[in-house]
Amino acid sequence: RHGAKHVDQRARSHRNSTPPHSDLDTFLHHLEAIDINHRGNACRKILDGFKQKHLRKLAKESNKRLDNCNDSTKQWLDLIIDIYFSKVYKKNESNKTKMVPKYILPLYFDNKGLEFIRLSNILRHDEVKDKLPEQFQHDETQSVVYSLSPTIRNKILNYKDAVSNIDINDQETFGTGIHTCTCSSSQFVDRNHGHVLTGDLRIITNEPLRKLIQKGPNFREPRTVNWKRCRDKIEEGLEVCSSRYISTGVNLSNQDMIPWKNEILRKVDEKIRTLRRRIKFQKSNPVLKRPEVVDYLGQLHNHFVLVPIDKAGNNIAIICKKYYVEVILREIGHIGTGNSTYETVEKSKGDIVDENVMYTEHSGFKVDERERDLPIMYWIPKMHKNPSAARFIIASKHCSTKQISKSVSNAFKLIFHQIENFHKKAKFLKNYNQFWVLQNIDPILDIIKNINRKKSAKSIATYDFSTLYTKLPHSKLIKELHYLIDFVFDGGNRNYIKINKWGKASWGKKSKDSVGYTRHSLKVAVKHLIQNCFFTVGKIVLRQAIGIPMGIDPAPFWANLFLYSYENRFISNLISTDKVKARHFHSTKRFIDDLCTLNDGGEFSRVHEEIYPDELDLKVEHSGDHASFLNLDITVENGIFVYKLYDKRDTFPFSIVRMPYTISNIPETIFYSAMVGEFLRIARSTLQYQDFLPRANELVHRLNNQGAKSNISFRNLRKIMNRHHDDFSRFGVDPQQILQDIMT
Fold first, then answer.
1. 79-118 burial, b if ≥16 CB within 10 A, otherwise e?
2. Residues near 702 by Cβ (< 8 Å), separated by ≥ 6?
C-alpha cells in the first residue's frame, strides 16, 4: 500500500512522537485541502502511519460525533473508525497445541474388555468425585491414557538377526548357512537381481501366517476378554494415579485416597457383573502361538529376510537371505570395489562402548544397561524404483551414544526454531526469502493459495539431494554447525541450554544440578557424535567416514541447518548485489533433501551450483507445469496451481497396508482417530472436489473392510468437518452432501 521504503532516504532527524493531525478537527481540515478524487486513499495512507494510541483517540472522538454531523462529514468519521478497527483486529486463531492433562490415570490395554467398562465415564460420576480429597474435588477429571500391548513386528521381522549373524570368516555362506539359493526357480524371483525380492505375500504358503502378515507389522493380535485382568489393570492404574495426587497435594497420605479408589472399583465390579450377563466373547487363538505356524515361520526365517519396505513401512518384503547379506557386505566394501563412505576400525567394540559411556556420564547423563552397545546397519528395499534399490539405515535405538544423541537433537531443535523465528521477525529483509526450510506441507499450501488468488501460476520444479548423507565431508559439516551454534549464542543473553528430565531443551542459567550444554560443550558433543559414528555388521566394527551420520537423532536438524547456512549466505550476498534477482527465490522451499521452486523463472536451476558445496549432487526430478512434492501432485492450469494428494505407494505392484484394523488389540478410539486424521489430510491436500471425492471414498471403503461401523464413521467424519469447516468449504459442496457422496 505504501510502496517501497528506501532505507538510505530515511530521515535521521528527531521525529515528534505525536502526529500533527492527531486532533480530529485538524485532521478533517487537512482532508478538505486534498482533492476529493484522492481524499479517501490519502486518508488511509495517513492513518496507516499513526500509532494505535493516536488512532484510537481519533476513532473515539469520531464515534462521539457520528450522531450529530452532516452526511459529508459522516463518511470520513466512518472511515476513521473502520481503519482503526482494521488496524487493531487480530484473528482469533484456535490453540493448536493440545493441552496436557493435569491428572493422568495410566492403563495397560490388556484386552478389549476395558473398552466395555468405560472407565472414563465412571471417573466423571459425582459420587466418585465426592470421594476425592476436598482439595481436588473441583479440579478437572482424570484422563485415561492407554499403553498398548506389543505388536507382531519383533516376532515376524528377522533382519536384525540376519545382520548380527554375519560371519566374514565364512567366505562361502557369510554365516547364513546357505551355500546355493534356489531363487532362480521361484516364481517370485526379481529378474533384475536374480534373487527373491518381493512384496507379494503369496510366497508364504501358510494361510494363517499370510493373513496375519497382510495386516502389517504394527498389528496386535486380539486377546480373549478377561474381566479379572481388566480389573487388575484398573487397580494398578489407580495406584499410580493416587501416588501422583499425593505428591502434588498438601498433607495427603495413602489413606486419604482409599475411598476414591474403592468407589471406582465398586462401580467397575458392578459394570463387570452386568457385562458378564449381557455379552459372551469368543476365545481368541493367537496365530503366532500355534505350533505349526511357529515351525513354518522358523523355516521361512532360515531362507529369507523379512524387512519393512521403504515408503510403505506397514508392508513387508521377503528377500533371499544370501542376497540380503551380500548387499550389505558390498555396501561396506567387504565385497566388490569398496566404499569410501565407511572405514573399518581397529578398536574393539568394547573399548568404543566404554569411551562413549564415559563421555556420556561425564556430561551428566545416565546410560541404561541395554544401551551399552553399538548400532547395526541394515537395509530396506526401495520398491518404488525400477529396478528396486536399497536404502541403508543404521539402527541406533539402543546404543552407547543414545543419551548424547537425544539431548543434542533437542538442543538443535531449539536452535532450529530460534533461527526460524529470527527470519520470521526480521522486518528489515522481509521482502526476501532467506529461510527455505519446511517442517510440513502447510507453508507450500499457503504460497500456492496466494499465487492462485492472483491467478499467476507459471511454473514448478522439484530437486533432490542424492548424496547428502553419504558424500559430505565431516570437516564441512562440523564447521557449519559450529558457526550456527555461535550465531544463536551470540543472538541472546543466555549462555546455557538446559535439558529437563523430559528431554526438552530451553535457554537458562547453569546451576549445580542442571544438565545441558554451554556453547563449548555443545560444539564438543557435535564433534563427538560426527567423528564417532561407529556401527557393526556382524562382528565387523566400522565408522562412517563421510556424510551426515545416518540413524542418529539430530541428523534431520543437521541436514536442514547445514543446507540453510549455504542458502542464507547465498541470498544475503545476492541482496547486496542484485535485489531483483534475490526476489526470484520468494517461493523456494526445502524439506530436508527435497526442494521445490514455484514461479522462479528457472533462476534456481541456473544458480544452484553456486549455492551448495561441490560434494552435493542435486538432481532435477520435475520441471515445467507439473511436479510432485512431498504428498502433493501439482499442475499449472490457466494460471492456477491445481493440487491433489500424491502417494508414491499407488504405483507399487502389490496391495499397500494402510490404517489399523478394529480387531487389533487397540482401543476403538485409536481406529477412528486414524480415520478422521487421514480424512482431514486428504481435504487439506486437495483443491478440487472431483479429486477429493475418490480419495475420501477409497478411505471409507477401505476402513469399512477393516472393521469400521458406518454409523460411528459417519458421526466422526461429521464432527471433523464441523470442527475444520474452512478445509472443506472451498469445495463449494454442502457438508451433508459430502458425507452422502463418500459413504455410498
1. bbbebbeeeeeeeeeeeeeeeeeeeebbbebbbbbbbbbe
2. 658, 659
CB atoms within 10 A of CB 658: 18
207: cell is 494361510
Q: Report how far apart, in Å, the C-alpha atoms of 3 and of each of 6, 45, 231, 290 are.
A: 10, 11, 70, 76
Element at 126 (helix H, strand E)? helix 126-129
pTM for this predicted structure: 0.81
DSSP of 365-419, one letter per residue? ----GGGSS--EEEEEEETTSSS-EEEEEEE-SSSTTHHHHHHHHHHHHHHHHHH
Burial class (CB in 10 A: 0-12, 13-18, 19+), 685: buried
Counting Cβ atoms within 10 Å, is residue 299 exposed (0-12), middle (13-18) or buried (19+)?
exposed
Dump pLDDT digits (tens) for 717-732: 999 999 998 899 889 8
Q: Are 226 and 111 in contact (CB under 8 A)?
A: yes
**Cell numbers that stand for 517 in this block:** 550444554
Residue 152 has pLDDT above 80, yes or no: yes
Please report where in the chains the cell 493531525 appears, as a residue. Answer: 21
272-296 confidence digits (pLDDT tens): 999 998 888 888 899 999 999 999 9
Helix (H) or strand (E) holding 424: helix 402-425
* Confidence at residue 186, expressed as pLDDT on a 0 to 100 scale: 92
Dist. CA 23–CA 30, nearest whole Å: 11
Q: What is the dihedral of CA 636, 638, 639, 644, to 10 degrees?
A: -40
Question: To the nearest 10°, the Cα dihedral for 163, 168, 174, 175?
Answer: -70
